Amino acid sequence: MSIYFSLYGGLYQNYLVREKDYSRRDLGDAIFDIVSAMVVTGLLYAIIYITSAAVLNTAGIIPSTMADMARQLEPLAGQHASMLFGIGLLAAGISSVIVNALAGATLFVDGVGLPSGMETDDTTAFGLSPVKITAIGLLIIGWLTAVVPVVLGASAIDTIIIAATFAIIGLPYFGYMIIRIANDESIMEEYSNTMTRNILAILGYLVTVGIALNYLYQNFI
């Protein structure tokens, strides 16, 4: 659920729209991008949840390794389930680690008052923008975080859980920032949130707060 409610990704969309140099005349294209991305992502998550429940839960399997997780594909891929799952996981990992590094770098760089564009005249070492330098640093940190536990004999699943923990705890903050920006008339002008949108946004926000509180209760209380 923490991954599905990727609110920091929603906040990062503000920077991506600026990078694309969208204007009011591109509003239709922007809405199409958002809706199509939400539909595709929702379908993918639904497939994962349904196959996990139908295969793993029915067999009483509690996944502790990647091989266990791959078993949900056995009805479709048979003995090749692990290979198919591995290819998909590799592709998802490569795409996610790059996007997450850029998102984190952009938010951090903007937060400390540096230019947050991917291409900017205010470059740092090696002719790279502050965002690119920071993203490279985050990629290195992420790689070490993933590799070191495995080298030391720890479970890779634990690393994923730790990463998800930070994502869950940060949900309320990013949700608040999105709602605040959406209601700021100096930024949104006539496109600022209506009452109906605010009600829906608050309901979604309460869900994210509930997820964070439930996680803290289950793991620390």
Round the Cα radius of gyration to an integer and report it.
20 Å
What integer is the average pLDDT? 81
User: What's the main sheet like?
Assistant: none
Structural class: mainly alpha
Low-confidence segments, given as residue ranges, are: none
What is the 3D shape?
Answer: globular
- Count of separate structural domains: 1
User: Helices and strands, in N-to-C order?
Assistant: HHHHHHHHHH
Total helical segments: 10
| Amino- and carboxy-terminal Cα gap | 20 Å
Quaternary structure? single chain
Strand count: 0
Instruction: Report the β-strand fraction as a percent range.
Output: under 5%
Q: In brief, what are we looking at here?
A:
This protein has 221 residues and is an all-alpha fold.
Describe this structure in words.
The structure is a single chain. The chain is built from ten helices and no strands. The mean pLDDT is 81. With 221 residues, it is mostly helical. The chain has one domain (7-169). Helix 1 (7-19) crosses helix 8 (171-182), helix 5 (81-111) crosses helix 6 (130-151) and helix 8 (171-182) packs antiparallel against helix 10 (195-220).
